[in-house]
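=== RUN LOG ===
request id: a7f3
mode: sequence -> structure
chains: 1
length: 180
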Amino acid sequence: MTDRRVLGIVVFVVCVVLGLGVARLFVNLSFQVPPPSHLPGADPEIIVTDELTAWAKAEYWQDFMPIVGPEGPPFFVVVTVTVTNTGNSTISSFEVPRVTIYFNGTRIPLVTLNLRVVQPDSCEIGPNESIVVKLRNDRETIFSPSIEGGTVLYSRVLTRWENGNEMILTTPPSALSHTC
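=== RESULT ===
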């Protein structure tokens, strides 16, 4: 009887651990910005819709200064999105919620990060007006990958605006810098 109880407990624990692992994987994949159908080239990909024209670029670095904490050197990304309103009405709710970073020449993701606007304060875009939106990764939790300086990465940037419109921008490849 004791052996059956132990076996039952072990089976239960294994099922819980596997269930949590699958659930965590599902949650992480649902937030990933999907990879492109074609790998990016050296020039920015310009996306044109009925209302907007947009393109993005990204800079990546790991900070080894002044001291590296126990979690490792933090990884940073700054995404710059240039948007032109080609429509006839003002777009008042343009946002860039997240980015998925990929290794260059592959569709293998490194990480998906939430983004925070650095500038401007408002992402309202009038007709025939252009804005440049600068964003950085959310730094509340530290992401510290073990990758070498000079590793080339590219990003897929999710953008949204009024009425549930979405557009995914692909940045040109850019090398990871290390601060020393």
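=== NOTES ===
The chain is about 15% helix and 40% strand.
Confidence is low (pLDDT under 50) at residues 22-30.
=== END ===
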